[in-house]
Amino acid sequence: MKKVIVESPYKGTIKINEMYAEFAMRDCITNHNESPYASHLLYTRKHVLRDHIAEERKLGIKAGFCWRDVAEKTIFYTDLGMSSGMIEGKVDCEKRDKPHEVRHLPKNLWNEFLNSMEKEGIEVIRKGAK
Q1: Is 40 exposed, middle or buried (0-12, 13-18, 19+ CB in 10 A)?
Q2: Is residue 107 part of a domain?
């Protein structure tokens, strides 16, 4: 398995963004034979760092960027757009000449993600087939 970093939105609607990151990790493992690392799911735990405090958010981003030295690639999952943190990550990849790619969830996982949101009571607007 290749070691990869997963970048996906965190700020905003955190519950939805965390669920999306989990599906991105699933895609890495099941469809790409990758071992994903998602610092934004780890460092934002209750007793680790507080993302709403600017200094701690910067520390978390810096700590996550350190993993690029051991990862084989950074994957940017963009179905929900690119957050400011993701843009910082892309700039870091480009500045350090680190391999990266933009990816979307495949149709089956995207639909499973939408279904999971509905089960959580989150309103989903489905516009056409993905």
Answers
A1: buried
A2: yes
Q: Which of 67, 61, 63, 76 is nearest to 27 (CA)?
A: 76
pLDDT tens across 31-87, in order?
Answer: 999 999 999 999 999 899 998 899 999 999 999 999 999 999 999 999 999 999 999
Domain count, the chain: 1
What is the domain-level CATH number for residue 84?
A: 3.40.50
Domain with 56 in it: 2-119
Q: What is the largest CA-CA distance in the chain?
A: 42
Angle (nearest 5°) at CA 94 between 61 and 15: 35
Evaluate if pTM is beyond 0.85.
yes
